[in-house]
Design goal:
By secondary structure, the chain is α/β, with parallel strands linked by helices. The chain is built from seven helices and seven strands. The chain has a single domain (15-206), classed as Rossmann fold (3-Layer(aba) Sandwich), CATH 3.40.50.150. Helices cover 33% and strands 18% of the residues. The relative contact order is 0.15.
Amino acid sequence: MGVFGFGRAKAAVPAAEWFTKTYGSRLGKRAVTFREAIARVASGDSTRRTIVETGCVRERNDYSAGYSTVIFADFIRRYGGHVSTVDLSARNMALCRRVTKRWADLISYEVGDSIAYLAAWPGPAIDLLYLDSWDYPVVADDGSQAASQAHCLGELEAALPWLHPRSVVLIDDGALPGGGKPLLAKRRLTELGWQCIMDAYQTLWTPAGANGLDLPGRMR
């Protein structure tokens, strides 16, 4: 992890309006949660807004899987900040670099284990944490669903020290058999007193006081 370059805000159009016009019709079941997450992040500091995602874009024009790295980078270019993405697959990351090359100056790319990456995170605080790194199988009887859920929880635990009172946590693949990828992470967030803003195909969470109440600077 090197020194991050932060983009400056350049857009006057509200982020939610920009997202709906640019990506809303392409994202299907993920559109509403992406829109809400981006709108919340856009309300923060435009000079050091930080998005961290686990699991990167791995196919061109793959909006059916979310196309998150592209969306986040495009958002950052317009509204300011930096994106960091980590994926275990060197092939996936190589494709991600090609697809997002127009925003490369605002993205940090890392090949490796996402839990280790987050555990070694040097700062700054994370405004949006997007967890989507371990594919969750719809049909499985070999423990692979539980493994995906445990990995997602491990990512959350590793990132917790860098989440703040207005952070947003967004997790993919929630509306799937067996509780989906975020099952254990949702339980942990509930234990910590976070509130679920939306729970559809993706699940979106913020600290309980994110809408105005004062909270400590760290969650733990």
